[in-house]
Amino acid sequence: MIYLFAGDDTDTKIKSYEKFLSSISKNSEVFYISKNNFSQMEIESFYSGAGLFFSKCTIVFSDILDREETREYLLEKLEFMASSQNDFLFLESKLTKVVLDAFKKARAELNVFELPKEKKEKFNNFLLANALGDKDKLNLWIYYRQAVDKGVGLEELIGVLFWKVKDMILKKHFNKLSEEQLKDIGNNLSFILPKARKEGKDPEVIFEKFLLEIF
Known about the structure:
With 215 residues, the chain is α/β, with parallel strands linked by helices. The chain is 53% helix and 12% strand.
């Protein structure tokens, strides 16, 4: 069985997660896996059968889905985990719809805890736009991650970047980026989300990759 605890309401999520852990039989072994001790071979041994010294165990993954390579591997293995006699528990932050849909398909028990919108700190999207205008790749990525973590939609972020590109072209601000570069960025912004969804790829991952390679 697979259990997912995710969302940006950290306090409620952790309380629910800890309550679940306390309900696990004392006779069941619990293994904790993070980015630092992740091993594909070990994961396969957990969903393939029982261990030598225990009949059933619980494997707890903590913030393991951040890395694209690890995330893709684990999402591909969810069906095997769902069929295993062992339990697999994921403790994650906010996840994209694509990832949540993969867990739903694997018949996982979803425990998603989101803060009410009015409690979320509003992100200043123009920080992202100004980083683009300054050709500042580092802050462009940092502000992107901050915006996503605060729940800003990709469409909204792409919209403000597209506005910035058009504004720079109209005002002929070509000291950081040439007109040709700006037009190319604007063109890519127009198609990046539809193309990602058409190809069945994670839009958030594709957009982040685009920003990291934009200059």
